[in-house]
Amino acid sequence: MFTRQLHNADTSKVAKIPDPRSPNYRMGDYGYGKQGVRVFQLKKDGPIHSVTEFKVNSHMRLRTHKEYYEADNTDIIGSDVQENTIYVHAQRHGLRTPEEFALTLTQYFIETYEQVEESNLIVEELAWDRFGEQEHQGYYKGKQHNHAFMRNSNGTHGCEVVRTRQGSPLLIGTFYGLRVVKTARAPFTGYVKGDMFSEGDMDDRILCTDINARWQYSKVVDIDFKTHWLKVRDLILQSFAGDPEKGVIITSVQYAAYVAERAVLEAMPEICSISISLPNYKHFPFDFSRFPPIEPKANVIIANPADTPMGLGYAQLDRLEK
Ligand SMILES: O=c1[nH]c(=O)c2[nH]c(=O)[nH]c2[nH]1
């Protein structure tokens, strides 16, 4: 999260071949590819259809750096080739989980093109729910539509895979963009204020955030990725909200990130590291003092949710090797 040093940074990404014509410089992170390739799969089982949609970013790092140093494109696997391969791969293997798609496609790129040193895939599912699947009332309640779907916005299931020629691929699971709010058991007190504070201590507040989590698997085989993703999601949500009646005290977004990470590492030995970032979308009670007196309703709070500026708390928790 946030800027890290650029100069002589991340030696794992440094170009292996120095530029013979420019000995004073060294190339750091590099690569190229295609962003935002949308692939939609419709499966027809007679009248019952099902749909799956992925958004894919494909990047590569080539063994040589001719395209940079020598203006020679002969090693480049065009980004349009990468894009078309995504569609061909979908046709051949089908869309199941982002993880399976990314693992098999990175393997294909590495095996097919000997100049590819590293293949990176980022895959996000743009999930669709069948009409009726989530309906708790109305016409579609209890009726599963054969061929009509609505976008599911319950948080995005995704992954990132980095595959090189040596060793097993790096697999990161991702869960982005689920907005959650809790309206009790969320104090924020005791922090440094000096004479610059505006809020003061809050014994309780409306705590609203988006869950953004990335985690690294220590193995990539024998994992049912859908089930594991749902389990991570559930553990994060449980640690934020707690028992349905009693809830759980969350003292800051920083603490929320940490307790969620601990819950995941404790329950899921196949995950070796997790990073969570949580914005804090303030919901200040609206200030009615300028307006003619209104009889306040003791049990109603009118607030003004603000997306920006927003606070942000984040942390990464790694499992220590034993
Ligand atoms: O959860 C929070 N963490 C903070 O660091 C912070 N700072 C602040 O003003 N409000 C909050 N809330």
Quick synopsis:
The protein is 20% helix and 32% strand. By secondary structure, it is α+β, with helices and mostly antiparallel strands.
Descriptive account of the structure:
Pathway: Purine metabolism; urate degradation; (S)-allantoin from urate: step 1/3. The chain has 322 residues and is an alpha+beta fold. The protein folds into 2 domains: 28-158, Urate Oxidase (Roll); 168-322, Urate Oxidase (Roll). Helices cover 20% and strands 32% of the residues. The chain is built from 5 helices and 12 strands. Strands 1-2-3-6-7-8-9-12 form an 8-stranded antiparallel sheet, covered by helices on one side. Strands 4-5 form a two-stranded antiparallel sheet. A hairpin with a 5-residue loop joins strand 6 and strand 7. 22% of the residues are buried. Bound molecules: uric acid. The site of uric acid (URC) has 8 residues, from helix 5 and strand 12.
The number of distinct helices, counting runs of at least 4 residues, comes to 5
**Ligand list:** uric acid
**CATH homologous superfamily annotation of the largest domain:** Urate Oxidase
Give the helix proportion (percent range). 10-25%
Strand content: 25-35%
CATH topology grouping of the largest domain: Urate Oxidase
Q: State the major sheet.
A: 8 strands, antiparallel
Q: What is the number of E strands? A: 12
Helix-strand pattern, N to C?
EEHHHEEEEEEHHEEEE
Named at the architecture level, the CATH assignment of the largest domain is Roll
- Specify the overall morphology: globular
- Unreliable stretches (pLDDT < 50, length at least 5) are none
Integer average pLDDT:
95
CA radius of gyration: 24 Å
